[in-house]
Specification:
Layout: H1 4-19, H2 27-42, H3 44-115, E1 119-130, E2 134-138, E3 147-154, E4 156-159, E5 166-168, E6 170-176, E7 179-184, E8 192-193, E9 195-205
Antiparallel strand pairs: 1-9, 2-7, 3-9, 4-5, 4-8, 6-7
Helix pairs in contact: 1-2
Length: 206
């Protein structure tokens, strides 16, 4: 590594050669130059100061480079994390789209169910049934395994002579796909037979 002393010596040697040329310095100029160079050569404080400045800049540059390296490493980690996040967003977007489609399908099904009915058909009617008798009613064809018959009565009556009458009701059943049968009850010691009014409702489910 060159020092100020070495450089000064080189300058002195070069000037000595030039002074021996065609236009040498006069003795006074030679003395001034020699004094100046000698002062620079012997000024170790100045040399140390220059070296210190150079080293300080070198240390600063090294620290800056190290800081930049740290920042680059951090940026690489951050970029990798963001790349993973972007992949997750893409997956979430796909899931969201599928979920939206599924919710839409469910909504359609629910709406269809809400607008539909589990009841396929309802048939209603009324009939008078004589006490202690059976009466059949023909209905539109139903699936007997999915049908139910509801029956209500207006009380019938029967009496004997001047004795108090007996109250009579009737029951109903599904005989087959097109036939209902209603059966009225009996009364004790009947001399005058009344009738029972039956109200029926036949419900067929899907």
């Amino acid at each position: 590594m060159s020092t100020i002393s070495n450089l000064t010596q080189l300058m002195v040697d070069k000037m000595a050669l030039e002074m021996q040329g065609q236009a040498p310095l006069n003795p006074e100029e030679q003395l001034l130059v020699a004094k100046a160079l000698d002062t620079m050569k012997n000024n170790t404080t100045f040399e140390t100061a220059l070296v210190a400045v150079a080293e300080e800049h070198l240390n600063t540059a090294t620290a800056t480079l190290q800081s930049a390296e740290t920042a680059i490493d951090a940026a690489k980690v951050d970029i990798a994390a963001k790349a993973s996040a972007l992949n997750m967003i893409e997956g979430i977007s796909t899931i969201a789209g599928n979920t939206k489609a599924t919710v839409g399908e469910i909504s359609t099904i629910v709406n269809a169910i809400s607008k539909s009915s589990v009841i396929k058909s309802i048939q209603r009617g009324s009939i008078n049934v004589a006490v202690a008798n059976n009466t059949n009613v023909t209905v539109n064809e139903v699936n007997t395994g999915k049908s139910i018959l509801n029956v209500s009565n207006k009380n019938g009556f029967a009496y004997w002579g001047s004795n108090a009458g007996s109250s009579v009701i009737a029951a109903g059943e599904i005989i087959n796909a097109t036939t209902l049968s209603f059966h009225a009850g009996t009364a004790y010691q009947v001399s005058n037979v009344g009738v029972v009014t039956v109200y029926w409702e036949l419900i067929e489910y899907v």
